[in-house]
Amino acid sequence: MAHSFERFGTAHIVVIALTLATPLALSALVRWYRVGILTKTVNRVLVTLLIGDKIVSLILLGCDGQLTIETTAPLYLCDWAAIVTVVTLIYPNQRTYELGYFWALGGTLQALLTPDLSFGFPDPRFIDFFGLHGGVIAAVLYLTLGMKMRPVPASIARVLAWTALYGAVAIATNTAFNTNFGYLRAKPAHPSLLDYLASWPFYIAQLAFMALVSCLICYLPFFIIDRRRRT
Description:
Helices cover 72% and strands 0% of the residues. By secondary structure, it is an all-alpha fold. It has one domain (10-230). The mean pLDDT is 95.
């Protein structure tokens, strides 16, 4: 008998706790020992886990007979966040890091807290879903706390521009293939933050505003740090 997902049930809370605790532990480890090979090893392990999770996801979809454009094409914002995060782990750089930072904390975090998911633990689909979404968030936090990467003021404009590009690609794909990438054609089947917004298509404009607010909130800790350093 399949286990149904329980939002903020024991398994969900454990996943959230692990998502936060893992990057803290990894960051403390690499900053304490300050050994280059250790950092590279941690990066490679995270890359392997993220890519491996995606492969497992495709296998599970194949077993369920659900291999479609919407389930396999990497055109959800969480997919883009995962891709740029993997690139940053392999080749640390500012441009892909800042995309991963804002997309993971502004978008993937919502998927972690309000997942569009029916299956509970220990269903493989539960583990796979949170392995990817929690893994992306954990990796971004590790890059920030462990590798001391951070966004800069110009990051906000660049991320908003890339997010607009994502929206355009998602809308074009949805129109051509009758999909729902980015939930830009319909709200998720399960309860989410979008339930508090207007009906389609008006909530798309609200999402654009929320993207700006989200970026400002995610940048706020660094704004405060910079202000304190100046004074």
